[in-house]
Amino acid sequence: MRLPAGVRERVAAVHGGGALPQRLRLYDGWAARYEQDVAALEYRAPHLAAASLAFAFPAPPAGARLLDVACGTGLVARELHRRGFRCLHGVDGSAGMLERARSTGLYRQLQRCVLGREPLPAPAEHYDAVTVVGALGEGQVPSTALPELLRVTKPGGFLCLTTRSNPSNLRYKAELEATLERLERQGAWQKVLAQEVERWERATSEEESTQGTGYISGVVYIYRKCPVPALEEG
Could you tell me the pTM of the whole model? Predict the structure, then answer.
């Protein structure tokens, strides 16, 4: 089945190599059609990430404070809300995306922030969980921003991250995983989960397709910030 007209071009534009202000304007312009387009792409990352985080959470999540980084239109918030998360804050670099996220009514707080260019608008050790779903990729949030995610996470808190495994993102994915592993060796966090998913979303070209399936693959990572509470270790 072919993708609807324009989807391939809009995806290519926002993942292109333009300067940051240009990419943010593209996201602003995409906001009105974003959810329609990712539905056509069968984009599963918000569902997979929220399900993985909810599974890892040791207690009922209603009282947990969670930061949704690069929140877009609120797709991750919808999935989290279905799983009992209620105290949701969001940040995104695109004013257009934030306007759509605000219309969901699911976030208690929304702020504009370009992670990688500026610090997150939160004090240290403020959140029980932090998510970055869909923004860890080539030309988007740099892997060097991971320590900033850790800074705002409480000790024992969870970080849920995703990236794609399509050919044009493999260099970024290797850099990301090297940073994830280095932080784990340094004792900053413990890996809870790294789940490879074959049908992450539909490919926008044959070159990006995984073994001719018409889809690209991706990964969900769950980490827990150290020190983990003693009673829950192991």
Answer: 0.94
Q: Pull the structure tokens for residue 34.
A: 């974003």
- Contact between 162 and 45 under an 8 Å Cβ cutoff? The reply is yes
| 196 burial type by CB count under 10 A (0-12 exposed, 13-18 middle, 19+ buried) | exposed
In single-letter form, the type of residue at position 55 comes to: F
In the three-class reduction of DSSP (H, G, I as helix; E, B as strand; rest coil), residue 134 is classed as coil
CA 57 to chain centre: 17
Place of tokens 């009282």: 63
Report residue 222 CA to chain centroid gap: 11
Cα Rg of the chain (Å, integer): 17
Residue type, 1: M
- Would you place residue 127 in the very low, low, confident or very high pLDDT band (cuts 50, 70, 90)? very high
